[in-house]
Design brief:
The complex is a heterodimer of chains A (213) and B (453). With 213 residues, chain A is an alpha/beta fold. Chain A has six helices and seven strands. In chain A, strands 1, 2, 3, 4, 5, 6 and 7 form a seven-stranded mixed sheet that branches. With 453 residues, chain B is an alpha+beta fold.
Chain lengths: 213, 453
């Protein structure tokens, strides 16, 4: 399936805040209650429509574990959008946001759109971080903010799509140089998905398009 | 002469890929041929087309690992080179097989057995992806046939019957003959498919309580544990194979063409020194002697350079593996294949004594060029503290690849944490826990002790 643009996203934040669950909910519309540790980085993709244009989101889901930090840090480069996630039921994940943000700002391109996500909004009874605190942090650091639940899917679509909208607007305003792939944006191939430069690429394009992974 | 020598070495390091291909005599004719196997990543990674494209990003070099657990939670990870070739020229394979027999004999108990085995392969390609893809797709089938040929003897030996040769020799023989056949197959395909280039081959075979590691090339297998490191392979580089190659050259000087010599000199002979004494040694000499420098001594030694930069005929830096049938010396156009060998060295390790922390690490030179065995053991050791059984081997593989790949600094150089240059090569690593193989073997053995023996 062809697309007008491809946006590259990266999801970051402490371990166990629900990064992989947000991705799974967005790409597969399902929730995985067991915490499977992410090793290094994993990938997901989904097509969305903005302003009548097909946009492919390619999402790099990173491990939150300190052990993988030096590896995952290198993936900030070339991302157009980042979802910075904390867990509203664990204050320490909120306290670590500054470190994550510094890391992201230091290693990414300056135009990267960052969306702050307070996840697990379904666990209201165990809430440790008030919504207003998230809003205040976002305001202070110039981020977009949203509370989500990967379990109930509340605001998950919006989180990914609003980030895409903001990137799209920046493209319209000419902020992003779309010809430089290092910005995490690629203009889509308008025709067949098969890549003629792939050695012997016969029939390999079938798995592309729609949601994958 | 010296300039030409320098150029040859630089050519070998910098432009090997293009040179190797361009030197094919009938490239023109063969360029229209299709590859035998389409480019792919290891089957167990289950990458779709999109993910395969992502995996080939030379600027980000994402470390790819299986998304589903492999047998015994075996770890694997890989990443692509920093731009020396469009595709990742490493390949990896994991296969489980069974040697099975059910023979009903009248008036006597049936002969019945099922011998399970596990096969791991790592192939590091050069001058293209073809040979490594052939090995990744075919070598395990060839090896299976070789094992089937010998399975009755292997079984008889296992159950304690007298056989003409012990099973170690039969399994080593299966590996050795399998490697040779793989190379022949690539040779036979030369005019049918696109030029395949060449590849190294490192295979680990777990069967009947033992680990057999067969190596032809400069990938490396090592058993790492808390307090010990057991090398399971040696690197076949021009430097390490100096004796074999020079002796072959001395016996068959025609293979050297007009411009190479099997002699080794203490320093590069120069024409201004003609008539003066120079220290040298012939192919079979251990020591050194003096001779008078003559015109014939001004030829280029068949082995040049040292360590990672050592080359056969100034061209190739690895002396064993598959393919390279059309490879010619960069400048002299002398065929190099006669000096290369598909023959593996096979090492055997008994699994009965392994401990819970023992792992077999198999990696291409992309790993070992910058990560020492002790550093690898250290990285793996940390995973035991941090992660559960399920994750520790795949995280170990990921961290090993990460510690060889390093990070991109100032958009142009890949650096390690200590700011030394990181590996810009393709990097592939298996981390295989050995203890489960020991357990599986004990269980297998008890089953057959109860039923059949």
């Amino acid at each position: 399936m062809s697309y007008a643009y491809l946006f590259k996203y990266i999801i970051i934040g402490d371990t166990g805040v629900g990064k992989s669950c947000l991705l799974l909910q967005f790409t597969d519309k399902r929730f995985q209650p067991v915490h499977d540790l992410t090793i290094g980085v994993e990938f997901g993709a989904r097509m969305i429509t903005i302003d009548g244009k097909q946009i492919k989101l390619q999402i790099w889901d990173t491990a939150g574990q300190e052990a993988f930090r030096s590896i995952t840090r290198s993936y900030y480069r070339g991302a157009a959008g980042a979802l910075l996630v904390y867990d509203i039921t664990r204050r320490e994940t909120f306290n670590h946001l500054t470190t994550w943000l510094e890391d992201a700002r230091q290693h990414s391109n300056s135009n990267m759109v960052i969306m702050l996500i307070g996840n697990k909004s379904d666990l209201e009874s165990r809430r440790e971080v008030k919504k207003e605190e998230g809003e205040a942090f976002a305001r202070e650091h110039g981020l977009v903010f949203m509370e989500t639940s990967a379990k109930t899917a509340a605001n998950v679509e919006e989180a990914f799509i609003n980030t895409a909208k903001e990137i799209y607007e920046k493209i319209q305003e000419g902020v992003f140089d779309i010809n430089n792939e290092a910005n995490g944006i690629k203009i889509g191939p308008q025709h067949s998905p098969t890549n003629p430069s792939l050695p012997g690429a016969g029939g390999q394009g079938s798995s592309q398009g729609g949601s994958c992974c | 002469m010296l300039n030409r020598f320098k150029n040859a070495v630089i050519g070998a390091v910098g432009g090997f890929e293009t040179n190797g291909l361009a030197l094919n005599q009938d490239l023109h004719q063969r360029s229209s041929l299709s590859p035998k196997f389409p480019y792919a990543r290891p089957h167990f990674l289950e990458l779709d087309w999109e993910q395969m494209q992502i995996s080939a990003d030379h600027r980000l070099r994402p470390i790819i690992h299986p998304s589903q657990s492999l047998a015994f939670n075996t770890g694997y990870a890989e990443c692509i080179n920093a731009g020396k070739s469009k595709w990742n020229e490493d390949q990896a394979v994991l296969q489980q097989g069974v040697l099975t027999k059910l023979e009903l004999v009248e008036n006597s108990p049936p002969v019945k057995y099922d011998i399970p085995y596990s096969y791991y392969g790592i192939f590091d390609g050069h001058a293209g992806v073809g040979a490594a893809l052939c090995a990744a797709n075919q070598l395990h089938h060839i090896l299976h046939e070789k094992l089937v040929d010998a399975q009755d003897d292997i079984w008889q030996d296992f159950i304690g019957k007298t056989v003409s040769k012990p099973r170690d020799l039969l399994i080593i023989g299966a590996l050795e003959s399998g490697f040779r056949e793989m190379d022949q197959l690539i040779a036979e395909d030369r005019n049918k498919y696109q030029s395949a280039g060449g590849c190294t081959a490192l295979v680990a075979l777990f069967i009947l309580g033992k680990l057999y590691v067969a190596n032809a090339g400069d990938s490396r297998a090592v058993i790492c544990s808390t307090n010990k490191i057991i090398p399971m392979s040696m690197d076949f580089t021009p430097e390490n194979e100096r004796d074999r190659i020079r002796q072959l050259a001395e016996e068959q000087p025609a293979l050297l063409g007009k411009e190479f010599t099997f002699r080794e000199y203490i320093c590069q002979p120069k024409s201004v020194d003609l008539g003066k004494p120079i220290m040298y040694r012939d192919a079979h000499m251990k020591g050194w002697a003096y001779k008078t420098l003559q015109t014939e001594d001004l030829k280029m030694p068949v082995i040049t350079g040292q360590g990672k930069r050592s080359r056969v005929m100034g061209t190739i830096g690895v002396t064993r593996g598959f393919g390279d049938h059309d490879l010619l010396a960069v400048h002299q156009k002398t065929p190099i294949k006669p000096f290369l060998s598909p023959h593996p060295e096979v090492q055997v390790h008994k699994l009965i004594d392994v401990t819970e922390k023992d792992v077999l690490v198999m990696g291409t030179d992309g790993l070992w060029d910058v990560v020492s065995c002790s550093k690898a053991a250290e990285v793996i050791g940390k995973q035991f503290d941090l992660f559960s059984q399920k994750e520790r081997y795949v995280s170990a593989a990921t961290c090993l690849v990460g510690s060889a790949r390093g990070i991109l600094v100032n958009d142009h150089s890949w650096q390690l944490k200590n700011e030394k240059p990181a590996s810009v090569d393709d990097i592939s690593v298996f981390v295989i826990p050995l203890f489960p193989y020991r357990d599986a073997y004990l269980e297998f053995k008890s089953k057959y002790t109860d039923v059949d023996l």
